[in-house]
Write a structure and sequence with these properties.
The complex is a heterodimer.
Chain A: E1 4-7, E2 10-13, E3 19-25, E4 32-38, E5 44-51, E6 57-58, E7 67-73, E8 76-81, E9 90-98, E10 102-105, E11 109-113
Parallel strand pairs in A: 2-11
Antiparallel strand pairs in A: 1-3, 3-8, 4-5, 4-9, 5-6, 7-8, 9-10, 9-11
Chain B: E1 4-7, E2 10-14, E3 19-25, E4 32-38, E5 44-51, E6 56-59, E7 62-67, E8 72-77, E9 86-93, E10 99-101, E11 105-110
Parallel strand pairs in B: 2-11
Antiparallel strand pairs in B: 1-3, 3-8, 4-5, 4-9, 6-7, 7-8, 9-10, 9-11
C-alpha cells in the first residue's frame, strides 16, 4: 500500500510555543489530506480536511486559528499548533487520499505540552 | 450525523480462539467501510475495505462482512494469535471522503 510519513514522531514543547507537524505522502500524490486527533484510549476525531492549494475545511469545534493547516504541494501537508497549551497534548495522525478511494495513514505524532 | 459504535470495547481470549468484533453505524448512506488495526502509540494499518456494494472481504485469517441495510459489520479473526493483540477500529466513509471512526475494540490474545 501507499506510504505516509509524519515528522516528528514525538515532540515536547513548552506552553505558549508553536509546533509544526509534517505529513508527507511518499509514493503517491494526495490531493486531499486529513488531520485527526486521538486522545488516550479513544478513537480518532477528524480535525480538518485539506485540499492542495486551497484553504482547509475544519470540523465543528476545531479552532482554525489555533491549528493552522497548509497543503502547499501534492505530497506535503503541515499542521501547526500555535500557542500550545497542555490540553493540546495528544496524538495527531494524518492521512492522504489516494486516487479518491482509500485513505493511507501516517504513523502519528505524539505531542506533549509542558 | 453518522455515529459508529464498536462492541465490545475490550476483549480477552486464549490463543487459538476465533475473534468476533462488531461495528454498527447509524446512517446507511456510506461509500465503504474499513477495518484498521492500531498498535499502542502507532498509526493505523488498514486491514480490509468493503465497498458499499459488497457483502464481505477476506484476507488470510481475516473476514469482514457488511450489512449496509442494518448498519452492521463484523470482523472475524480465525485462530487468534498473541500477535493479533491490538486495537481494532472500524470506520465508514460517507460524502466528502470523510471517515467516521468507532471507538475501537482492544483485543488481548493470551498465549
Amino acid at each position: 500500500g501507499a506510504v505516509v510519513s509524519q515528522h516528528p514522531s514525538r515532540v515536547i514543547c513548552k506552553s505558549g510555543t508553536s509546533v509544526k507537524i509534517e505529513c508527507r505522502s511518499l509514493d503517491f500524490q494526495a490531493t486531499t489530506m486529513f488531520w485527526y486527533r486521538q486522545f488516550p484510549k479513544k478513537s480518532l476525531m477528524l480535525m480538518a480536511t485539506s485540499n492542495e492549494g486551497s484553504k482547509a475545511t475544519y470540523e465543528q469545534g476545531v479552532e482554525k486559528d489555533k491549528f493552522l493547516i497548509n497543503h502547499a504541494s501534492l505530497t506535503l501537508s503541515t499542521l501547526t499548533v500555535t500557542s500550545a497549551h497542555p490540553e493540546d497534548s495528544s496524538f495527531y495522525i494524518c492521512s492522504g487520499l489516494a486516487g479518491g478511494m482509500e485513505q493511507y495513514f501516517g504513523p502519528g505524532t505524539r505531542l506533549t505540552v509542558t | 450525523k453518522q455515529e459508529v459504535t464498536q462492541i465490545p470495547a475490550a476483549l480477552s481470549v486464549p490463543e487459538g480462539e476465533n475473534l468476533v468484533l462488531n461495528c454498527s453505524f447509524t446512517d446507511s448512506a456510506i461509500y465503504n467501510l474499513q477495518w484498521f488495526r492500531q498498535d499502542p502509540g502507532k498509526g493505523l494499518t488498514s486491514l480490509l475495505l468493503i465497498q458499499s456494494s459488497q457483502r464481505e472481504q477476506t484476507s488470510g485469517r481475516l473476514n469482514a462482512s457488511l450489512d449496509k441495510s442494518s448498519g452492521r459489520s463484523t470482523l472475524y479473526i480465525a485462530a487468534s494469535q498473541p500477535g493479533d493483540s491490538a486495537t481494532y477500529l472500524c470506520a465508514v466513509k460517507a460524502a466528502g471522503n470523510k471517515l467516521t471512526f468507532g471507538g475501537g475494540t482492544r483485543v488481548l490474545v493470551k498465549p
